[in-house]
Design a protein that fits this description.
The complex is a heterodimer of chains A (about 575) and B (about 150). With about 575 residues, chain A is an alpha+beta fold. Chain A is built from 18 helices and 29 strands. Chain B starts with a strand and ends in a 16-residue tail after the last helix. The chains are: A alpha+beta (about 575), B mainly beta (about 150).
Chain lengths: ~575, ~150
Amino acid sequence: MSLALEVQGERRSVADGSIRVDVDRLDSLMRLMGELVLTRNQSVAHAAATGDATLVRGAARLNLITTELQEVVLRMRMQPIDIVWNKLPRVVRDLGAACGKSVRLEMEGRETELDKTILEAVKDPLTHLVRNALDHGIEPPQARLAAGKGEQGLLLLRAFHEDGQVNLQVRDDGAGIDPAVVAAKALEQGLVSAEGLARMNEREIVNLIFLPGFSTAATVTNVSGRGVGMDVVKSNLERIGGAIDVGSVIGAGTTFHVRIPLTLAIIPALTVLCAGDRYAIPTINLAQLIRLEGGQGLAGIERISGTPVYRLRGKLLPLVYLDRELGVAAPDREERDTVLIVVLQAEDRRFGLVVDGVLDTQEIVVKPLSSQLEHVPVYAGATILGDGSVALILDVLALAQRAHLAGTGREQARAAPDPADGDRPPTGAALLVAQVDRDRQVAIPLERVIRLEEIPAGSVEHVGSRELVQYGEEILPLVRLSGGVGAAARADGDALTVVVCSTGGRAVGLVVEAIVDIVEGGLPGRGAPGAAGLLGTAVVQQRITELLDVEQAVREVDPQFFDPPAVPARGGP
Amino acid sequence: MSAAQLTTFSVADHLFGVEVTVVQEVIRYQPMTRVPLAPAALAGLINLRGQVITAVDLRRRLGFPDRAADELPMDVIVRTGDGLVSLLVDRIGDVVEVAEEAFEEPPETLQGIARELIRGAYKLDHALLLSLDVQGAVHLPPPGGSGTSGTAPM
């Protein structure tokens, strides 16, 4: 407690009231603190189980004191952000001189404290943001005067605590980021589709600058444009559980807002059950829990060609089975009545992790893994649970990459060909890959997909040359892709796999052989399309895949589809 | 130095020894948390008074057949360059003092991975005492491709 008092002696001046403490000692104190947190968790759980009032009261007090002590110990590892900031005035001065810009640097909240390890981790991203603001944000003096601003630019750094997180802002009063320019660049570089853009608001468009491969720098200066982009800043911050976004007003300036956790050593986590083992998932990645019971479990999940998806509020959520991903699935666990989906967010990818059970949320102490496990990237560390057993902490981003949800898009974007390849088709951020024939695959922008359906072949009705099927209260026209894009129409099986797409404000069912996968990221289009209705080709999972132009494919099969009178009357036969 | 002290233990009927100074402690079998996707020789993680420690199964590491399901191994906690690691052995033996003169190069009877991890043998009166290369034993090659064999050649 005497140490704690030392820390709390805030009224004394820093000079006479502080002592130097070896970092090793702090680390060992931290370790013991972790022990205490575990013992606390154990005692509290046990006391509650006994129902003994005295014991419960004692445990409650222990709980309170431990929480307080934990805060004190965490604060001992804290250092003011100024340690990083005090190097920045020089950076700003030197860079300003190099770029011929006059910049005044202001700092607010120098005394804001961060955990030592986090402080080290934010140093580089923060410096990058400052350099970026100087190079791209603040205009040269003449331009500023022309815009009616003072000759001297202002760069404001702010740091403050909010919601148990540290907030850092880098704000400049420069030209701001033009959403139109960002949108055009992102489209040109194939990072986003035109449809996707249309649905974004300005703020979302400006935040596209964090996509891997994105660069608006027209010229490479010695400050920026060296290939280290905002995506690296973003991923570096995400590695420590942080987040970044950007807001901008044209002509008035840009603000980068970084949120990072106070500490990495003790984090809240959700404990889940998988194949008899317990795993911890950091709650920072947790978006939602879904429990499907009874028939829902089987009906709610489309389980087609091994690419399970769940419809979450109208959007397709790719599912990852934790037991299969870890290779511990029991062979007889194919169909379950009750399905638990942990909806997770990693970078900008959202996916559902299917687990056997969800236990509870608690504060866990992160313990590093030994070097023997560094080749196994799906774990972020280990922790000791209340009963003393060890549980692995899942690295959600690595898990998504392992399941090919997030990684593919990133790599493809990096390897994207040069912007001179201008007539590449605009491709979506996510694509549904479907098999049309035995050896042909097509990709459909996921944002066009409404549902995936299995329709019994017998329910298909023929009206003239058209095929229709009753779909809820509507009548859904069917388009057979196998016939439509130049291949022979296949013989009817027992059931048709139908991708329900929206086109021209109406729904159309594309009949495919099977759903293969959902892939992320703009596919680099290649070569001339072989037939109308195709935007180009790309390689998905070592297979040539054609990018489908939904409107054109529909028109190929049914030229009158988009003519208003051709809409079949409601009611059906 | 003409004599060394070795902590001895047996693995698959072979007698092994490691320097007494690298052994922190020997404990009875601890329940382990398995680590999916890890090399096969990595038996799991144990909780040693609040520290998470990796357990390496020496049988698998040395390419011996697995022990029977009802035989519980023991944990020999050793200090390595990478922190504490637990070696799973069949039985723990005595601490013996060995003379340098009794040392010889690895015997020809041992093949493959075991040979790489054994520095040599001390000829005792009743048995051969194999000197284990602890650093080598706790360094696990990454599982090759989809296979999980931790005993694959490096």
